[in-house]
């Protein structure tokens, strides 16, 4: 009886995994991983739009940028995953067509950001706005989207660490798929039979919490120091890679190695150094971009939104330019209200 109570207490002290990550409505599969990705994109666009308008940008611009950045990012994320884990799709006994099955999981954030930036650059040039300023507006939303996306790894029961006896260890179960015994991803846990290493470190949860912390950090730093010229985005990259470095070291899933370290560990190191260098060098570009530089070129100046940030007034150099149209209109109005009588009749 004591052994049963001890086992029950140990189980209750761990985090259980979902029984499945895929549900079906008729022949249509509903995948938790895809839903998490979509939810993350929606949150990133919503928060990015609010931040862009608050900085003085034109309303609706972020959605226009997302039309280019999101598909580019999805392709880039998949390409990075396939390239760095090519042994999963190519070689003897492998089916290369599986490289196209993005719904089965496998998106590399580095590729998503790199190619997503290309899409964003195209959209920003069409709008006539600076990409670094747009990146600063989007940065907190991007890292929050990454946190939401990690929930998809939880449902897929993937990207976890080694065995642990900590109370927040993650229970992982054997999943069965009667139509394809080797397809555990689309299977269902029957009877909650634990895998040999269970419970394990929930590295997806570690990264989720870390990402939310990075989001709070860069939002605070942006408000405190009025960062601009891509420095918010650089701070996001530095903060994220600092966490990804130690979390990646804990993971036990299959990965390629260079000089004894996982590829993503090296990527984290290089990007951290690059981000810190950019953050320092970009400070020489001066204060945050003036709001009028964020107006889309296809929006009339008088219709462009005004920044609602309390301390985001344009510099004196730009204030004169921005105020010119109003000054002309005010002068015309004053003349129209003057007494039309000639000077001799006054």
Structure description:
The protein is globular. With 346 residues, the chain is mostly helical. The protein is 54% helix and 7% strand. It is built from nine helices and six strands; from the N terminus they run αββααααββααββαα.
Distance, first to last CA? 110 Å
- DSSP helical segment count: 9
Q: Could you give a short account of the major beta sheet? A: 2 strands, antiparallel
- Spell out the helices and strands N to C: HEEHHHHEEHHEEHH
Given helix and strand content, the structural type is mainly alpha
- The main sheet orders its strands as 1-2
Q: Which oligomeric state applies? A: single chain
Residue-averaged pLDDT, rounded? Answer: 85
Q: What is the radius of gyration?
A: 26 Å
pLDDT < 50 stretches: 1-11, 307-346
User: How would you sum up the global shape?
Assistant: globular
Helix % is: 40-55%
Task: Name the beta content range.
Answer: 5-15%
Number of strands: 6
């Amino acid at each position: 009886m004591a052994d049963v109570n001890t086992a029950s207490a140990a189980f209750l002290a761990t985090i259980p995994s979902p029984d499945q990550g895929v549900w079906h409505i008729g022949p249509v599969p509903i995948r938790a991983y895809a839903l998490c990705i979509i939810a993350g994109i929606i949150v990133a666009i919503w928060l990015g739009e609010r931040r862009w308008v608050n900085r003085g940008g034109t309303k609706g611009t972020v959605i226009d940028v997302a039309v280019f950045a999101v598909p580019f990012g999805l392709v880039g994320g998949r390409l990075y995953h396939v390239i760095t884990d090519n042994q999963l799709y190519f070689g003897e006994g492998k089916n290369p067509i599986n490289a196209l099955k993005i719904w089965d999981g496998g998106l590399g954030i580095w590729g998503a950001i790199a190619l997503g930036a290309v899409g964003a650059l195209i959209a920003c040039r069409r709008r006539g706005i600076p990409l670094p300023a747009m990146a600063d507006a989007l940065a907190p939303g991007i890292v929050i989207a990454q946190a939401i996306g990690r929930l998809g790894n939880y449902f897929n029961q993937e990207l976890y660490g080694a065995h642990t006896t900590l109370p927040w260890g993650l229970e992982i179960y054997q999943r069965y798929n009667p139509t394809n015994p080797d397809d555990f991803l689309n299977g269902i846990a029957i009877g909650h039979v634990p895998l040999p290493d269970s419970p394990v470190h929930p590295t997806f949860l570690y990264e989720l919490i870390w990402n939310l912390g990075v989001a709070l950090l860069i939002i605070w730093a942006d408000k405190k120091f009025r960062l601009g010229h891509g420095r918010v985005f650089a701070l996001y990259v530095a903060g994220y890679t600092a966490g990804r470095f130690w979390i990646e070291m804990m993971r036990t899933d299959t990965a390629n190695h260079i000089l004894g370290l996982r590829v993503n560990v090296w990527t984290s190191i290089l990007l951290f150094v690059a981000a810190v260098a950019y953050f320092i060098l970009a400070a020489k570009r001066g204060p945050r971009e003036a709001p009028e530089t964020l107006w889309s070129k296809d929006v009339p100046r008088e219709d462009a939104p005004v920044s609602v940030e309390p301390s985001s007034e344009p510099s004196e150099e730009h204030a004169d330019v921005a105020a010119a149209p109003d000054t002309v209109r005010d002068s015309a109005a004053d003349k129209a209200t003057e007494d039309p009588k000639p000077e001799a009749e006054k």
